[in-house]
Amino acid sequence: MRRWERAACGLLGLGLGANGLFMLGAPFIWYEAVPGVVKTGPFNGHFVRDIGAAYLVCAFALAAVAWRPPKAWPALLAAAGFLVLHAGVHLFDTVCGRSSLGDLARDLPGVFLPALAASLLVWRAAGEA
């Protein structure tokens, strides 16, 4: 894994980790602060913290890959799996009419780009394994 790929894993992990900690530590503030979240339904602190925990696991997986790529790259696959499935849920909601194309566009930087970045990193890492 090249240096830039390791750096990308580290940066993506930092972003996901910050979001996960925010979700775990201040779920109601997170719920109100992130654009569009309040439109998804009433606040459920347990649910927000559950997803925050998943983001934190992804962050640790990406940090492990940034630190020891040859040994930890399967952790990248697991992190990408969650991120892609999460993006798939957002896409499904749009296709089914539960959210709009505007919502999908709003979710591009925070949901779809991390999933795409992690998927590309998996593809690159798998080619070297």
Q: What is this structure's SSE topology?
A:
Layout: H1 3-25, H2 27-33, H3 45-67, H4 69-95, H5 101-128
Helix pairs in contact: 1-2, 1-3, 1-5, 3-4, 4-5
Walk me through the structure.
By secondary structure, the protein is an all-alpha fold. It has one domain (3-128). Helices cover 84% and strands 0% of the residues. It is built from five helices and no strands. The protein has helices spanning 3-25, 27-33, 45-67, 69-95, 101-128. The termini are close together. 27% of the residues are buried. The model has no long low-confidence stretch (mean pLDDT 94).
Q: What tags apply to this protein structure?
A:
129 residues, globular, 0% strand
- Tally of distinct domains: 1
Task: Write down the secondary-structure element order.
Answer: HHHHH
Q: What integer is the average pLDDT?
A: 94
* SS elements, strand count: 0
Helical content band? over 70%
- Helix/strand-derived category reads mainly alpha
How many strands, what sense, and barrel or not for the largest sheet? none
Uncertain stretches: none
Total helical elements: 5
Shape: globular
